[in-house]
Structures are given as C-alpha cells and as structure tokens.
Design a protein that fits this description.
By secondary structure, the chain is α/β, with parallel strands linked by helices. It has seven helices and five strands. The protein has a single domain (57-238), classed as Rossmann fold (3-Layer(aba) Sandwich), CATH 3.40.50. It has a five-stranded parallel beta sheet with strand order 2-3-1-4-5, sandwiched between helices. The longest helix is centred in the middle third of the chain and has 23 residues, at 114-136. The protein starts with 62 loop residues before the first strand and ends in a 5-residue tail after the last helix.
Length: 243
C-alpha cells in the first residue's frame, strides 16, 4: 500500500538542500604572503653626505664585511653592532652558513681539501645572495669572515663579486695573546689549536699596509669596539677604501 502522506510541518530525512557556492575571492594584496619584494642586485657604493654634514653610519643602510682571525671577536662585535643600530640590520656569519651542512660537513680542522673549499665558496655565495636581498629591501648587513690578505681572488675578490662594490671591509685584529685567550674559551669545531691560531694571526698581519681600516681591539670591550667601528665606517662612507 502507498505510504501515508507526511504530517504538516514534517521534513523528510535526507541530504541538506543545496546552497549556492560563493565564487573564490583572491586575498587582498595586504595579506601575508603577498608582499612584493624588490629583487637583490649588486650593492653600489653608499652615497656620501654633503661636505657640511658628517656621515652617520648608525642611520645609513650599509653592507659591512668584518674581517679577522679566529678569536678576534668578529661575531660578538657584529651582533652587538647590528643590535644597536637605528635602522634594520642583519648579521650574516659565514661559519653559521657553512654549518648548515650537517651530513657530509667538511670541517677544515680535519684538513683543507677540495670538499671543504667547495663548501666554503658555496657558503660565501649564499651569504652574498642573502646580503643583496636584505639590502634591496632596506635592511643593512654585516658579514664576518676570516679573509686572508694573501688570497685576494678567493677572499676579498669573492666577496666583492657576490655582494657588490659597495661592500665596506674592516679588519678586526687584536694582539696574538688576546686571540689565544678568546680561542681557549671556545668549544666544538670553533676551537682551534694554539699553533693554528698563531699561524692565522700571522697571515692576518698582512692587512697592515693594505689600505683597509684596521681596528686593534686588544684593550676594548665589545661596545667600545662597536663605537670605533662606527667611526671607521663614517670615514669609509665619506672616502671609500680602494680594494
């Protein structure tokens, strides 16, 4: 027999009635993920201020390369300097980028070979790429590396190719005794033997007479060294070193 008619107000079970779908609306340009970023290009020379005005490195977008032996205090000074600027600033450490490689890391302490050389060059190129992109978006950069004066093509020449001619190099070179003391406080693969520290420090002495600004921070703490670095950069902006 046919089923009885439903009672008034009764809704038979079943799928919900179809509701019209709203058309997909793309997110507004202001939302996260849609911020346009200028592409990074070679860093040009910083523009010098008028002769009547003293250049203020603390308020200028800069690319700085801090050079020095292991134990010179490069990382501590670079971090402090970046932390206390009035403009956005990034610290890019070559050693940190090299250690992104976990499995297969070529530790130079185990001997310098083609593999460690390749990883060093790759890290430097990665640092340069990052610096150009930060700077193109208004963020200053300070990079640190143990660049040797007797390898200009690999050292300064490589940084100049990867970052640009506007990179400002500064050498941090305390006395050997200070470097040995600071190295002794290190641990892991960042700590070198005294013989290796002395050898690197001796090679770094070749920067004297190179024309690059040199800071002897043997008797300076980190804030004092950062202040001297600001003074040096002020002169470098007004009269960029030839390198």
């Amino acid at each position: 027999m046919p089923p009885p008619p439903p009672a008034p107000g009764f809704t038979p079970p079943g799928p919900a009635p179809h509701s019209p779908q709203h058309a997909h609306v793309p997110p507004a340009p202001e939302t996260t993920g849609h911020v346009p970023l200028p592409p990074g290009g070679p860093v040009g020379m910083p523009s010098a201020p008028p002769a009547a005005a003293a250049p203020d490195p603390a308020a200028t977008t800069l690319a700085v390369l801090l050079i020095g032996p292991a134990g010179a205090g490069k990382t501590s000074v670079a971090k402090y300097w970046a932390d206390h600027r009035r403009v956005p600033t990034a610290h890019i450490s070559l050693d940190d980028v090299r250690e992104w490689v976990r499995s297969g890391f070529a530790d130079p302490q185990s001997g310098w070979n083609d593999n460690s050389e390749a990883q060093y060059r790759l890290a430097r190129r990665t640092c340069g790429f990052a610096a150009r992109n930060f700077l193109a978006n208004g963020i200053s950069c300070i990079l640190d590396d143990a660049v040797f004066p007797d390898r200009p093509v690999v050292g300064l020449g490589g940084w100049k190719r990867h970052v640009g001619p506007g990179l400002l190099p500064v050498v941090l070179l305390p006395g050997l005794e200070i470097v040995l003391e600071r190295n002794a406080e290190r641990s892991g693969n960042r700590r070198l033997t005294d013989e290796e520290v002395a050898r690197i420090h001796g090679r770094m002495a070749g920067w004297y007479g190179s024309g690059l600004p040199i800071i002897d921070n043997s008797q300076l703490d980190v804030p004092q060294t950062a202040q001297v670095l600001n003074d040096v950069l002020s002169r470098s902006i007004a009269s960029p070193p030839t390198w």
